[in-house]
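Before the break, one more example. Copy the sequence into your notebook; we will annotate it together after we see the structure.
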Amino acid sequence: MPTQIGIAQVTYERHFSVLAQFLLSFERNVFDASSCQLLAVTSSVNETHTFQRELRRVSSPESHLRLQVRDLRHIVHALDPASRVDIDRLPIDKGFHHGNHGTLYICLKKAFAAWYALDVLGVHTVMVTDSEAYVWKPMSIQEVFMGHRRDPAVWYQDLGPTEKGDHDVGQMRVNFCSMLPWTGAGPWGLTQTGRRGIVGDADGNQTEELKRDQAWNRFMLRMRSGSRRGKRGRAWETWEALTRERLPAPGVQLMDYMGFFYSRSSFAAWRSAITSAWQMPFLDAVVGALDRMQVCDSDAFWIEPSYYSFLFAEERRRYRFVNATAAVRDIFRPAEKELLQNSPIIKRLKYLPLGLGLFWWFLDNATFPYLESFYAQHPLPIFRTDFRGQSLARGSKDLSCRPLDLIARLPRNVASIQLNSAVPNWVFTSPQCRSKLPNASYPWVKHRVVTR
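Here is what the structure looks like once it is written out:
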């Protein structure tokens, strides 16, 4: 019996064409597409109408996709009615606020998209991503989800400490701020005293919770300055001790693999941890937690490390955490000297791939067999590429179209879904790439998204 599955995508007007292109590729290449619920979350009712018009313009009226389009405000009112936060005017502005295109807004949009798919559409597992996606070859979406259900792996990047013993301070701040909503205030929720005092008690005295908040702000600032001086000190030891049971490694990057799956039970447990820690509705709890911390601006919270750190801390037995850096290095390290001489990209960068997030940046004639070998050992269905040229400059062109060669060489379902990266228009128009497409009528909708 098919599993109840769904894909939820967050979008905004500039990306409507590239999302429509994904939906056309999904319908063309996924032979069990009708078994998957699809959800597109816009920012407003007007955006919903605009996207629906765009979809009618490019798609067939006989489309059998199970697609629903909802705006975020509608979803928030339906799922979190007690919230007092205006989702369109988030009170987090510390120099990095970008309105409805900011990181916090987009991540909250993803959280509510997952919540809506799981609780309203009734799917068992949902994959959440953005508009930039494409399905490249005939495949089964049920097999992709069943593979994740059989082996619920979380791939992470771990570069380890530097030679000076430090870790990436920027990544540490993202992990700290992303974990803060579910761990609670103070020393990572080691004490749960109910609703936190924001300024003080009834007599105007500072609460213990506020004192701990201030101590953590000082700690994070020391971490920043300590990193610039290259000194480890007690701050780093404190960080490592406090994250030992909450992260696979102190400087871990939990957003390395683009397949972000959320199960109904685990997602509900994560939400419950957040609302219980702060005794507030979900939206208010996340925004309030970040607003009280000086170091947690609107670009510091990401849903993926928040959710996956919770899984590691609370539900580790149900999931397999895989070090992508080690897995990639196992393939490449034996040939490191050869690749430093023969691979134009590795010769230019002077290092081997570090994980899966930018893995396909390293694809050239010399590295092709090593990427192929990696996927033979780890048949992952999702990948990210933006067809950059060897300069790796944003918007540059890889007119050799090697990603298409690798996609074609790998078995069905392996590297079949491109996520978190748009397919450039020129892939469908340049003679070099068109000759490698499975057929000349592959879905293409002209868009304005520049590859990252």
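The two ends are 39 Å apart (CA to CA). The chain is about 45% helix and 10% strand. Try to locate both features in your own notes.
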